[in-house]
Amino acid sequence: MQLKVEDLYPSRQEDKPQIMKRQDPVIHGRGKGIPTSLTTKQEDFYERNGYLVIEDFFSQDEVSRMQEEIFALKEAKTGLTYPEIITEPENDDIRSVFAIHRDNPYFKKLSEDPRLLYIVEYLLGSEVYIHQSRVNYKPGFKGKEFDWHSDFETWHVEDGMPRMRAVSLSIALSDNYTFNGPLMLIPGSHNEYLSCVGATPANNYTSSLKKQEAGVPDDDSLRKQVDQYGIDVPTPKAGSILLFDCNTMHGSNSNITPYDRNNVFMVYNSVENKLVQPFMDGPPRPEYIATQMSATGNQL
Ligand code: 6CS
Ligand code: FE
């Protein structure tokens, strides 16, 4: 039975939205003597904007191998029905494959790559584990949008993630252009928590990974954030990484161009931020979406 703790970030409980202040540091490892490969300039950019792009992080050979892996995965899973396979809302095209760090030896090893840990352990100020991993395929002509959202709002309410001490690391496996549905982020939004309206439907995850309805901020709150902070649309090339704080507001448009936009996501959570009871009525989401770690640190 998961621990019940105080809800510092209530959402989907009131009938009107609220903008709350962040109650957690952005960079948890500062002053703890944790080494990192991040430069001061990179660290400051991340703290100020809630995201950071590092171009040419992986070699061409590594990118080619990852591309082979994700296309083999897509080939092998197309037409099959597994909970980890999420198809597009309007057809059977694969939109995402979850739990690749668990099911694919190559991505398991990648999730533990010291070059990645050398960054995320500093940002999170502790040892880390994978909260969630996935491949997001956004094929040319067909890839659909991801509405604006804060991942933390979902991971807090539906998975029981207590504090803002997780980071998503996206690996670009195709070139991002302004026009093929790249990730759009609201720089600085990570410092505000948009508490959403509307209760969470039972088994929400069975539809929310196709198209998110609950936990999508209202238009007025979003307009306020965009008016204040603007929208950044980084266009990293294949082999780059994009790190973004769990609470940075982001979304992406559909892809009507011929150019795929595929990426791998590894979501790292601090071992000091393990999931507790979800902050909603009902059970936590399944393991392939949200890793449940026991108090002793083993995956349940
Ligand atoms: O619900 C989730 O955990 C997933 N949904 C989105 C749109 N982003 C984060 C994560 O993959
Ligand atoms: Fe997201």
Topology of helices and strands:
Blueprint: E1 18-21, H1 40-49, E2 51-54, H2 60-77, E3 85-87, E4 94-98, H3 100-103, H4 105-111, H5 114-124, E5 128-136, E6 146-149, H6 151-159, E7 166-172, E8 183-185, E9 192-195, H7 205-208, H8 219-229, E10 241-245, E11 250-252, E12 263-270
Antiparallel strand pairs: 1-9, 2-10, 3-4, 4-5, 5-12, 6-11, 7-10, 7-12, 8-11
Bound molecules: ligand 6CS and fe (iii) ion.
> What is the string of SSEs from the N terminus onward?
EHEHEEHHHEEHEEEHHEEE
Characterize the largest beta sheet: strand count, sense, and whether it forms a barrel.
7 strands, antiparallel
CATH class reads Mainly Beta
Number of distinct helices: 8
Percent helix range: 10-25%
Structural class: alpha+beta
Bound molecules: ligand 6CS, fe (iii) ion
**Fourth-tier CATH superfamily name:** q2cbj1_9rhob like domain
In what range is the share of β-strand residues?
A: 15-25%
Number of strands: 12
Task: Please tell me about this protein's structure.
By secondary structure, the chain is an alpha+beta fold. The chain has a single domain (22-273), classed as Jelly Rolls. Helix content is 25%, strand content 20%. The chain is built from 8 helices and 12 strands. It has helices spanning 40-49, 60-77, 100-103, 105-111, 114-124, 151-159, 205-208, 219-229, and strands at residues 18-21, 51-54, 85-87, 94-98, 128-136, 146-149, 166-172, 183-185, 192-195, 241-245, 250-252, 263-270. The strands form 3 sheets. Strands 2-10-7-12-5-4-3 form a 7-stranded antiparallel sheet. It has a 3-stranded antiparallel sheet with strand order 6-11-8, covered by helices on one side. A hairpin with a 6-residue loop joins strand 3 and strand 4. The protein is globular. The chain starts with 17 loop residues before the first strand and ends in a 30-residue tail after the last strand. The relative contact order is 0.25. Fe (iii) ion (FE) binds at residues 149, 151, 250. The site of ligand 6CS has 10 residues, from strand 5, strand 6 and helix 6.
